[in-house]
Specification:
- There is one protein chain.
- The protein is an alpha/beta fold and 359 residues long.
- The chain is built from 13 helices and eleven strands.
- The strands form three sheets. It has a seven-stranded mixed beta sheet, sandwiched between helices.
- Strand 5, helix 4 and strand 6 form a beta-alpha-beta unit.
- The radius of gyration is 20 Å and the shape is globular.
Length: 359
C-alpha cells in the first residue's frame, strides 16, 4: 500500500493507494468515526462493491446503510442533493456520523457537498472507483452540483477525512471510462511534469490495457502532483487554477452536450487541444508539440477534434467559468510541455478565430 498526504495543516488527510483496500477494516479503522455511516453510491457500483465495504465497516462495530442515487452528470443536481438530505434527516444522522462516497466523480462531488452542508459539516471519506475520480476529483476537497446553465456552479471547498483508492475497482470499468480518466492523468504531465508526460507516451499501451504496475504509478504520480498543488493553494486563488487546463473549453463542450453526449475526460481532451492551439497562437509550442499531445490523447482512446459549437456559443458558455475575472475569460495555457500558466492577456480575436474554426 502507498500512502500520501495532502498537507493542509489541521485539515491534512491521507491518500491510501493499493489493492484490496475496500475490504480492509485496518485502513478504514484509521479514519472512520464510530457513529453510523451512510454510503452514497449508485446501483451499478453498489452492486459490485457495497457488500465488501459493508463487511469491513461492520467489523469495526459501526452501523452502515447504503443510499443509491442515479448515475451521470445530469443527476448531479439540487433534486438529488435534496434526496440525500431527506435520508440523512429521516435516519437521524448527526454531526459525528460519516458520509462515505463510493463511486466516481459524480458520487464524490455530490456526497462531498452534502457532507459540507448537512448540519454545517459532517465527516466524509472518498472511496473513488473510477480512474478519473482516483486521480483527480477525489483529492483536493472540491465539492459541487451542476446547474442547467453551468457545470459545478454550486459547491464548497470541503476536505475529506481520507481518500481510499482500491485499484482493483478499475477492472470493472468499461474502456471508455478508463480513457476518460487518462485525460486527467495526461493533464498532470502537460501542466507540471514533462518527464511524466514522456513516461505516459511510452507506457500508454500498458495503461489502456490495465497493467497494474503502470496504473499504480500513474495514480500515485497524479495524486502526488495534485496534493502538492492543493497544499500550496487550497481555495484556487492562484496555482490551483492550473489544474483546470483544458477545462474552461471542456466544460463548455460538456454543457453543450447536456452532460450526456461526452464523458468529462473526453470533453477535457478536446478542450486541451483548444488550449494547446491557443498556446501556439500566443507564440508558445511548436506544431510538433501539439501533434505529440494529440497522438498521446488518441493512443489513450480520447477524441481530439472539438465540436463546432460556433464562436458565440463557446464564448457564452466559457463566460460562466469560475475563473472569469472582470468579465475577462482567464485561460490556462502552456509555455512548454510541463509548464503551464494562467493568462487573461491574450488577443481576443485569436481566441474567436480559433473557436470559429473548430469542428
Amino acid at each position: 500500500m502507498i500512502q500520501l498526504k495532502v498537507e493542509l495543516g489541521s485539515r491534512s488527510y491521507p491518500v491510501f493507494i493499493g489493492q484490496g483496500l475496500l475490504s480492509s477494516d485496518r485502513v478504514l479503522g484509521k479514519v472512520l468515526t464510530k457513529e453510523k455511516s451512510l454510503v452514497i453510491t449508485n446501483k451499478k457500483v453498489g452492486s459490485l462493491y457495497f457488500e465488501e465495504l459493508e463487511t469491513a465497516i461492520r467489523a469495526l462495530g459501526v452501523e452502515v446503510t447504503p443510499l443509491f442515487i442515479e448515475d451521470g452528470e445530469k443527476h448531479k443536481n439540487l433534486e438529488t442533493l435534496s434526496f440525500i438530505y431527506d435520508e440523512l434527516i429521516r435516519q437521524g444522522y448527526g454531526r459525528q456520523s460519516s458520509i462515505i462516497a463510493l463511486g466516481g466523480g459524480v458520487v464524490g462531488d455530490i456526497a462531498g457537498f452534502a457532507a459540507a452542508t448537512y448540519q454545517r459539516g459532517v465527516p466524509f471519506i472518498q472511496i473513488p472507483t473510477t480512474l478519473l475520480a482516483q486521480v483527480d476529483s477525489s483529492v483536493g476537497g472540491k465539492t459541487a452540483i451542476n446547474h442547467s446553465l453551468g457545470k459545478n456552479m454550486i459547491g464548497a471547498f470541503y476536505q475529506p477525512e481520507a481518500v481510499i483508492i482500491d485499484i482493483g475497482t478499475l477492472s470493472s470499468l468499461p474502456k471508455r471510462q478508463v480513457s476518460s480518466g487518462l485525460a486527467e492523468v495526461i493533464k498532470y504531465g502537460l501542466i507540471r511534469d514533462a518527464e511524466f508526460f514522456s513516461w505516459l507516451d511510452a507506457n500508454m499501451h500498458n495503461l489502456t490495457n490495465g497493467q497494474t504496475e503502470a496504473l499504480c504509478y500513474a495514480i500515485e504520480k497524479s495524486c502526488s502532483l495534485k496534493a502538492e498543488i492543493v497544499s500550496q493553494d487550497e481555495r484556487e486563488n492562484g496555482t490551483r487554477a492550473l489544474l483546470n487546463f483544458g477545462h474552461t473549453f471542456g466544460h463548455a463542450i460538456e454543457v453543450s452536450g447536456q452532460y450526456t453526449k461526452y464523458l468529462h475526460g473526453e470533453a477535457v481532451a478536446m478542450g486541451s487541444m483548444l488550449a494547446l492551439n491557443m498556446s501556439r497562437s500566443m507564440g508558445f509550442l511548436d506544431v510538433s508539440d501539439v501533434e505529440k499531445v494529440r497522438t498521446v490523447l488518441k493512443s489513450a482512446g480520447l477524441p481530439t477534434t472539438p465540436p463546432n459549437l460556433g464562436k458565440s456559443l463557446y464564448l457564452k458558455l466559457m463566460q460562466r467559468d469560475k475563473k472569469v475575472k472582470n468579465g475577462r475569460i482567464r485561460l490556462v495555457l502552456l509555455k512548454d510541455i510541463g509548464e503551464a500558466y494562467i493568462s487573461d492577456d491574450y488577443d481576443s480575436k485569436s481566441l474567436e478565430f480559433l473557436l470559429s474554426m473548430e469542428g
